Give the backbone structure.
Amino acid sequence: MKKLIGILFALLLVSVSAFSLIGCGDGSEEETNVAPVSFKYKLEKTETEGEETETYYVLTNVTVSDKAKSLIEKKDYESLATLFNTSVEGVYEAPAVQYTAETVRKLVIPETYEGKTVKKIEKEAVVDLTYIEEIEVGSNIEEIGLGAFSGLTSLKTITLPFTGKKLGAVNGEKSFGYIFGTTSSDGLTSCAQTYNEGSSDNSATYYIPTSLKNVTIAGNNADSSETKKYILEKDEDGNDKIVYVDDDYAGENTVYTVVLNTSVYAVASYSFYNVSMVETVTLAGEIAGIADATFYGCSALKSVSLGGAVRIGANAFNGCTSLKTVDLTAVETIGASAFSGCTALGALAENGTSQPVTVGAKEIGESAFSGCTAIDSVVFVSADAKIGDNAFKGCSALRSISFNGANAEIGRFAFSSCDQRLQSVDFTNVKSVGEGAFLGCTVLETITNLPAAEFIGTDAFRNTKWEEDQNA
């Protein structure tokens, strides 16, 4: 009897052990019933007075399975692609275009789900997916939440329809870093982004992937305005208050008119302020102008396509110390200090050949290129170009200046302290030379075709070799 009980007890232990192995195991059974990558959504609707209700989807979460995480930890992206390419019956449908070891690291935000447009990405929707190297967000997306793409420590390239939260966002929500969030971790760079002119309170700190080098903004900058009429009435405290009125207003109050700026920018002013890791920015939309301080302090920025911009705002590229070349031939207006401190701009190529800064603008703002200590040569191609005060002050490597457009006007101290290589200047096509324009250009000794004396300002050539020779 005891022997029989012992046998039964042993069989019971074996059964329990077998059950434990099935339940815990290596997760292989669980993995056969889950999607290797999962997109989750919620349905939302907009209700506008007088219009039909519109329903759309919000992307709330993107996750990968435990098996996918294991492959990611091993950096086995070929097996990860195979996993993503394998359907799970009733749970996951393999993509029509098969992943490869290279493309599996790209995340494309879907345009639709269950026949409806995906319009928003919720905050923290794509978090800590460290395998992702590239993200593509299409024009279907109208809003991106705070930290929607946080903790993506391998991200190298991103394409967006706009910077920040949405078109027309203001303050910190228009900053490029907004979508990467405020949570720090290894592999992220702290970027204190000023978002408006004024006090230090106008800033927020975001944590952007250190690996991020290439950014494309596909949306448009749309300039627009709206004219409105208003009257002044008294509130309950006796203070004036503004009341907007229609064109058919027939009351006795004086009607005033105000023009409101309703411009919407995909690339807003200050949006890339102090983003210190991005090397290439492509503006793929219709960008009529680069707003003030848009790329201020982008110290790693090497290349930027201007998207057809004809205006560059004040301080737009101030302090972009890695920027070597930029096409300015189609630009009509360059704002104050727009490229000030761009110490690599216009440097000689590696083979020693000149890379001229060709300026097509008629209006070149004060200090626009001041302190650009690598500029070798500059060519002005527009007629009636007005070169602002201090525009090229301190461009110490400047060797050659060409005025190819007629009637150029050189502002006060415009080329002062260009003191190392500027030996000669031909003033053909120059209408006037401002006060101190070439002050301190100590090696300047050959000047030809100067305008009449009455168009030359005081001390225009003071402390130059040419002046010394005139006074000898």
Q: What stands out?
A: The first strand starts at residue 37 and ends at 46.
